[in-house]
Specification:
By secondary structure, this protein is α/β, with parallel strands linked by helices. It has 5 domains: about 80 residues; about 100 residues, Beta-Lactamase (2-Layer Sandwich), CATH 3.30.450.20; about 80 residues, Helix Hairpins; about 170 residues, Histidine kinase-like ATPase, C-terminal domain (Heat Shock Protein 90, 2-Layer Sandwich); about 120 residues, Response regulator (Rossmann fold, 3-Layer(aba) Sandwich). About 40% of the residues lie in helices and about 20% in strands. The strands form 4 sheets. The protein has a 6-stranded mixed beta sheet with strand order 7-9-11-13-12-10. It has a 5-stranded antiparallel beta sheet with strand order 2-1-5-4-3, sandwiched between helices. Helix 6 crosses helix 11, helix 9 packs antiparallel against helix 10 and helix 12 runs parallel beside helix 13.
Length: about 625
């Protein structure tokens, strides 16, 4: 594959070759003068003419041979030119290397690829242009070609003369020996774009997997919350009924049995809180209050003052907070809890007794938010600018292999803790249309940046998750806004106790879970209210039509077979537009009330119920009915 010397278009060499051929022919004729007759007098005319004929034929033969030679030379020159194009101007680098990786030949593209003139590459070591971390890989590649005598390929990183690097594909094969030395022909292709595209594809696939995982967890958590809240509601409701039951024994409230029941009730309520934490991870948890316009620096400042009290000895907490702003629309308590989770995680990840945690607040443009290691997967900024809370530690950092797992519920690299702090924090950010980005290096600590939309920075048409807002009921518990018709006259402030006539107010309980339905009936009976039961929406419509004069309020589950809560609400309102209806569900309110509905309930009640909460909502409904 040695490139030919000279310009293939130069024809001066052809003229020189012809002159040299003429000179050598004349010399040969002089050496053998008898080959040419000198005496023509003794020849007849026919002999002379025959001689001239032969000379003419030889002349024509020579001209034909010369024409063939010129054509062959032209073809050779064309082949030379094509070879020049294919070799030197190829889109890949061609190198001929000795067994010890010395460069014997290189094409122009090879020189351009390494940013070195081709002639300056000759006799240099090819390994000069391979990154140190990939030297071993190239050594084994070269040895495989030499020992096996067969082609081989490998991918590695090469470095140019200016210090820049690129990903390269090497395709090597044994070549013709030069000066009795074994040689290797190597083709070098720049595959940086292909490698980058493959990395981006893997990143997109990983993000898609994370999105699918979140969706799967969302369905699982919602179903768990629904079923567990139903079961926990039965447990907590019956325990509350027992504890609330009057007793003639004055010491009954302090007895061991009552204490045991109170402990059981506290444990059941903690179990209910756990389902809410799972929903919070998915951004489906119920906010403790409506978002309000708040000064983020002030929220962080108040949170830091509380954290300093609980900090372990030797922990140093440094802050960089603006005097005022940025402004965000959030639930301040949720943001303080998020800050607490991040700061606690930071000092627990640091060396005990010498932890240094840095907390700062700033404002960034959406274009400044990093795309890598940004959670939740698939999140894209919609606001023009974001408020940023950064919590940075100087601990051991996070293993890059674990970054995709640190926000999973119950994941923890520590020997203690529930593994819910970061997952709940991510849920809080998601619920506020924000995100969390993580930057870390092993041994150099980690930085968590929480991005929340700055107030007034969202486009006018933007709504959460890009959905058109639809009317939704207020968070439970709430006062009824709907007042029943005039013929439903029951005095306000219904007393609690058996003295209230069952005929004064009947409540239709629509619930497919028999245990939950029976619990509601017992609670209503304790309140002195009559209860009618229905196992689903179809049965509820039938019961209401049969007892329309008695039913004052409907307590209806959302998820039921045959006819769900929203369809039941619409069917009942078609019969009586003023009928008060309370919807209740073990699913989070955000899930249970999602979408647009033709009718709105008078209240929404989360499961598991708290006895006082259920009583309060029902009393108000009966009083207004």
């Amino acid at each position: 594959m040695r490139p030919p010397d000279g310009d293939p278009k130069d024809t001066g060499g052809a003229r020189e070759d012809a002159a040299d051929l003429r000179r050598r022919a004349e010399e040969r004729m002089e050496e053998d003068p008898m080959s040419v007759p000198t005496d023509l007098e003794g020849l007849s005319v026919d002999q002379v003419q025959g001689m001239l004929h032969e000379l003419k034929v030889h002349q024509i033969e020579l001209e034909m041979q010369n024409e063939e030679l010129r054509q062959s030379r032209a073809e050779l020159e064309g082949s030379h030119e094509r070879y020049f194009d294919l070799f030197d101007l190829a889109p890949v680098g061609y190198f001929t290397l000795t067994e010890d990786a010395r460069i014997v030949e290189a094409n122009l593209t090879g020189g351009e690829l390494l940013h070195v003139p081709r002639n300056d590459l000759l006799d240099r070591s090819f390994t000069e242009f391979i990154l140190p971390d990939d030297q071993d890989g190239y050594y084994h590649h070269r040895r495989a070609v030499v020992l096996a005598g067969a082609p081989a390929t490998c991918e590695l990183r090469m470095v140019r003369a200016d210090g820049s690097s690129f990903h390269a594909l090497l395709e090597s094969a044994p070549s013709v020996p030069i000066d009795d030395r074994a040689t290797i022909r190597t083709v070098v292709s720049d595959i940086t774009q292909r490698t980058r595209a493959a990395a981006e594809r893997l990143l997109l696939e990983k993000r898609l997997q994370q999105v699918e995982k979140v969706e799967s967890l969302g369905r699982m958590a919602g179903a768990m919350a629904h079923h567990f809240n139903n079961l926990l509601g039965v447990i907590t409701g019956n325990l509350e009924l027992v504890l609330d039951k009057p007793s003639e024994d004055p010491n009954w409230k302090g007895s061991d049995g009552v204490v045991d029941l109170q402990d059981a009730l506290a444990g059941a309520r903690k179990a209910a809180d756990l389902t809410q934490l799972l929903l919070a991870y998915l951004g489906q948890g119920q906010a403790r209050s409506d978002p309000v316009l708040s000064d983020l620096s002030e929220i962080v400042r108040r949170g830091i003052s509380l954290l300093r009290i609980a900090m372990p000895p030797g922990t140093e907490l440094k802050t960089d907070l603006p005097a005022k702003g940025p402004s965000v629309r959030v639930d301040p308590r949720d943001i303080q809890q998020l800050l607490t989770n991040l700061v606690t995680n930071a000092w627990e990840a640091s060396e005990p007794g010498s932890a240094r945690v840095h907390v700062s607040v700033s404002t960034v443009r959406s274009s400044e938010i990093p795309e890598e290691q940004r959670f939740p997967a698939g999140w894209q900024p919609k606001a023009l600018s974001y408020a940023c809370i950064e919590v940075r530690d100087e601990g051991s950092g996070i293993d890059p292999q674990s970054l995709d797992e640190i926000f999973d519920p119950f994941y923890s690299s520590k020997s203690f803790g529930r593994g819910l702090g970061l997952s709940v924090g991510l849920g809080t950010a998601r619920a506020h249309d924000g995100a969390i980005a993580v930057t870390t290096l092993p041994g150099q600590g980690a930085s968590f940046r929480v991005y929340l939309p700055e107030a007034g920075a969202l486009p006018a048409a933007h709504t959460r998750e890009g959905r058109t807002p639809s009317p939704a009921p207020e968070a439970a518990p709430r006062d009824f806004e709907r007042v029943g018709s005039a013929d439903r006259s029951i005095s306000p402030g219904v007393p609690e106790g058996p003295e209230t006539s069952p005929e004064a107010a009947s409540v239709l309980v629509v619930e497919d879970d028999e245990m939950v339905r029976k619990l509601a009936v017992r609670i209503l009976g304790r309140m002195g209210l009559d209860a009618l039961e229905a196992g689903d929406g179809v049965e509820a419509v039938e019961v209401f039509e049969a007892h329309r004069d008695r039913v004052r309020v409907v307590l209806c589950d959302v998820t039921m077979p045959r006819m769900g809560g929203w369809e039941t609400l619409q069917a009942l309102r078609r019969i009586d537009p003023d009928l008060p209806v309370i919807l209740t569900s073990g699913y989070a309110e955000a899930i249970a009330t999602a979408g647009s509905h033709a009718e709105e309930p008078d209240a929404f009640l989360d499961k598991p119920w708290e006895l006082d909460q259920l009583r309060d909502v029902l009393r108000k409904a009966v009083a207004r009915a």
